[in-house]
Write a structure and sequence with these properties.
Elements: H1 3-10, E1 13-16, H2 20-31, E2 36-39, H3 46-54, E3 57-61, E4 65-67, E5 70-71, H4 75-81, E6 84-87, H5 93-102, E7 121-124, H6 130-140, E8 151-155, E9 160-165, E10 168-174, E11 177-183, H7 189-196, E12 202-206, H8 208-213, H9 217-226, H10 229-235, H11 249-268, H12 276-284, H13 291-297, H14 299-302, H15 314-317, H16 319-333, H17 339-352, H18 356-359, H19 373-380
Parallel strand pairs: 1-2, 1-6, 2-5, 3-10, 6-7, 7-8, 11-12
Antiparallel strand pairs: 3-4, 8-11, 9-10
Helix pairs in contact: 1-7, 5-6, 9-11, 9-16, 9-17, 11-17, 16-17
Length: 381
């Protein structure tokens, strides 16, 4: 093992964002002896402030213990003290990436030379094409290739099912496998090994296009909201989104229609793809025969009564603009009509008062605007 490999395997890990997904990653890393530094945007720092007040991160469920992370005052502080950073935020990725770029002039080696982000690996959960957004921001800023991150990694979804309730992190369960995509598509083995070592589950590496098509949150989450509005309004969160929200015919059939669009897009891109229950079985190490059976019987997803309490929820506000919109627009650019995705985008825009097709993750925002279908496939591969 080279000195750099050893550094990556033992280095402190930065967590940008302290929602349940980021905190679960932090707890699992600290349980295995890794040092972790946490940062959250001041407007989204409730969880972080509670942990600071307690002096510990308390975890229950799959991980039991009290852990002592470090706390950073700024993004710059995190970048100065780490080589590997998780981006684990639901909103504001573009603003955060621009903050990261602003730190580049101050990131120097021991000789005082500016090295920028060249030693850094960024891992985004969920990926939602963040690597493409970041690449566009780097280009717009005129950031030289030598100052850009050594690797940008997108993860298909959060590795753990977790909540932060009453100052306690509750990890209900973890995936058995996760899929990641990266730029560069085939990073050096030392980077792959370092990333793999951060997770407690098997990591499967893909190109960005394949990873995008392995993200199933945009397939299921928005429809849970759209087809259960009365339940959301009346249940005060005391309902099970999978067992109650996905198994009835209206939701179930619509979810499968969107999944057929996802598969159609993957085939248009020339990429391998699992159907919905196949991807869920891969993620969780289960063996259900149908999606309805998974939704009804999955222990991890039905353990607690904790459904959304309003339509102002990431199932719509993240998964539609960042998931459904780019997949629909990429399909359209390839000449593939994805009507089920289009219907979800239109309905979600209507109930939230947003215009997701215009304001979501458009082709322009991911650097694909004006490209031919063949060029899009090449860019994503």
């Amino acid at each position: 093992m080279t000195a750099n490999q050893q550094d990556l395997m033992t280095a402190k890990i930065g967590i940008l964002g302290t929602g349940p997904a980021g905190l679960a990653i932090a707890a699992k890393l600290m349980e295995r002896g890794r040092k972790v530094v946490l940062w959250a945007h001041p407007d989204h720092s409730k969880n972080l402030n509670q942990i600071k007040s307690d002096g510990v991160l308390t975890s229950r469920g799959a991980i039991e213990g009290q852990f002592h992370p470090e706390f950073a005052q700024s993004v710059a502080d995190v970048l100065q003290s780490t080589q590997i950073c998780f981006i684990a935020i639901s909103y504001g990725r573009t603003a955060l990436l621009k903050q990261i770029v602003d730190c580049v002039p101050d990131l120097k080696n021991e000789r005082g030379d500016t090295v920028g982000l060249s030693k850094h690996i960024f891992i985004t959960i969920p990926g939602n094409l963040t690597s493409l957004i970041a690449t566009g921001i780097f280009e717009e800023a005129g950031l030289h290739q030598s100052l850009r991150p050594s690797c940008l990694v997108d993860v298909n979804s959060a590795p753990d099912a977790s909540r932060f309730v009453n100052n306690v992190l509750v990890i209900k369960g973890s995936k058995k496998n996760i899929a990641v995509g990266s730029i560069p598509t085939d990073p050096p083995v030392e980077i792959k090994d370092a990333v793999n070592a951060l997770f407690t589950m098997q990591v499967e590496w893909f190109d960005i296009a394949t990873l995008m098509c392995a993200q199933i949150n945009p397939v299921i989450h928005p429809i849970v909201m759209l087809e259960n509005q009365t339940l959301i309004e009346q249940s005060a969160g005391k309902w099970r989104p999978y067992q109650q929200g996905m198994t009835h015919d209206d939701a179930h059939e619509r979810i499968l229609a969107v999944d057929r669009d996802r598969i159609r897009l993957a085939k248009g891109l020339g990429k391998p793809v699992r159907n919905l229950v196949g991807q869920l079985n891969f993620n969780y190490g289960t063996g259900y025969d149908t999606f309805r059976e998974f939704a009804d019987k999955s222990v991890v997803h039905n353990k607690l009564l904790e459904g959304p309490i309003s339509l102002n929820h990431r199932f719509l506000k993240q998964d539609v603009p960042d998931g459904c919109v780019p997949q629909y627009l990429i399909g359209k650019a390839l000449g593939i009509e994805l009507e089920a995705y289009k219907s979800v985008i239109e309905d979600a825009s209507r109930v939230t008062g947003e215009n997701y097709l215009a304001d979501g993750l458009t082709l322009e925002k991911i650097g694909l605007d004006g490209l031919t279908g063949e060029e899009i496939v090449d860019r994503l591969s």
